[in-house]
Amino acid sequence: MVIGGGIVGCSVLFHLARHGWTDSILVEKSELTSGSTWHAAGNVTFFGHYPSITRLYVESVSSYLKAQSESDISIGFHRSGSLRLASTSEELEYFTNLQSVFDELRVTYRVIDADEISKLHPLLTTEDLVGAAHTPDDGHLDASGATHALAKAARNRGASIRCGTRVEEIEPTSDGRWKIVLSDSSVIAEHVVVANSFWARELLARLDINVPVFPLEHHELITESIPEIERLGFELPVIRDPVTPANFRQEGNGILCGVYESEPVPWGVDGIPRDYSGELLPNNIKILDSHLPHLFDRIPVFAQAGLKTVFNGLICYTPDGCPLLGPVMGFHGLWLATGFCIGIGTGGGSGNFLVNWIINGEPPYDLPAVSPDRFPHNLTSSEIVKSIIDTYASGYALHE
Q: Domain spans of the chain?
């Protein structure tokens, strides 16, 4: 059984079905994508925060394209490419040293100078830049479309999905399986994958399992149409800028921007309301005041554009920003696929990674960065939240 109908849960179900586990079932307390997936920007990239999980990014795009082919549901993939900007020689050297990683994965990857940045994105200010990492074959997609493609492709292979079904409790049985108590029935399963984002913490606390995840508020801005973009005749690449720090991409003829606030606001630390299903929160755009000058300096047309939409949604985080992906130690058949702050970017590959582990009894490759037992079990909520805030606020700072 898979718990959670966001892009990660649907990816797990899709890969289970592809491996012939067609008696698998996914349950979602509301509707598919109703958590954080529905308001995600949909950015996908081959260049992640940590080189060790690059393969998850690469396999995610591949998974979504396979699901699109099997389901006939468009994932809305824009192969615009992306740029990760470097303003120091140390950053550029770091990018250069990653060339072998992408060569091994057969991903087109280049380190380019500021002049080439201007050719790919003529609306950027590049005077303070020394270069960028360019991955021309990634970009962005429709997060909801990709999720529904995964879900339909899984159903086509025989898997089942039940929406409007809440998991009230899970408990081990005497014969080594799991009893999942649902809002309308009970199910016995050999394996349970908990993929319900920040809800995982409360669900597994009943088993005395300390899942170190909490959500943070995260603002995204979408501008009105910008004449300079209308006149370009090509789509701009997705930009990830460690200075602002922010990501931004073309949305129609406007710009969609997600900012990593320096003082992010945690949410639901004392408990998640039972009826919460991923709705947007009230905007607190004042929290962006210290970041907007950097954004306007980087892309001056943004400063002149009218804002069409401002929304404040939740993102799930772990203390180090990497997901929890693998078995829960001491609980046979219980698996975590949660803590995704970049669920669209890594969800497809993570589903593939976890399913191979479930079926074969060992991970397909060594990936300690996502191990669920990498954090002490006795971390307090305040310790977890502090680390999450620090990680979020670091934005696109480099990580080993």
A: 2-393
245 φ/ψ angles, rounded to the nearest 5 degrees: -85, 145
pLDDT, tens digit, 9 for 90 and up, residues 93-133: 999 999 999 999 999 999 999 999 999 999 999 999 999 99
Return the exposure string of 294-315: e unless at least 16 CB atoms fall within 10 Å of the residue's CB, then b: ebeebbebbeebeeeeeebbbb
Per residue in 222-253, pLDDT tens? Answer: 999 999 999 999 999 999 999 999 999 999 99
Q: What span, in angstroms and rounded, lies between the C-alpha atoms of 352 and 11? A: 7
CATH number 3.50.50.60 is the correct assignment for the domain at 2-393? yes
Identify whether the C-beta of residue 26 lies closer than 8 Å to the C-beta of residue 13. Answer: yes
Instruction: Give the 3-state secondary structure of residue 167.
Output: strand
Crossing angle for the helix pair 143-156 and 343-360, to the nearest 10 degrees: 30
Q: Which of 99, 112, 366, 85 is nearest to 248 (CA)?
A: 85
| Structure letter (DSSP) for residue 255 | E
Collapsing DSSP states into helix, strand and coil, what is residue 176? coil
Task: Provide the residue type at 52 as one letter.
Answer: S
- Can you list the positions of beta strands (E) in the chain? 2-3, 25-28, 43-44, 82-86, 110-112, 131-135, 139-140, 160-163, 167-172, 178-182, 186-189, 192-194, 214-223, 238-241, 246-251, 254-259, 307-317, 324-327, 334-338
The pTM for the full model equals 0.97
Place of tokens 């992408």: 102
